[in-house]
Amino acid sequence: MRKLKGFKQFLREEDGMGTVEVILIIVVLVGLVIVFKDKITKIVNDLFDKITKQTGKV
Question: How far apart are CA 4 and CA 9, in angstroms?
């Protein structure tokens, strides 16, 4: 009976929930970067090309 009370208390604790949430967000973001890696690379390259062309005008 005493072990059951300890288990219920363990389930109610929320101390580690913030860490778990942050880790899940990081995993989702890394997954999105992996899936859209080619598109992200193209957008960044296009952006740097535009910046390089416009700095020549100044």
Answer: 9
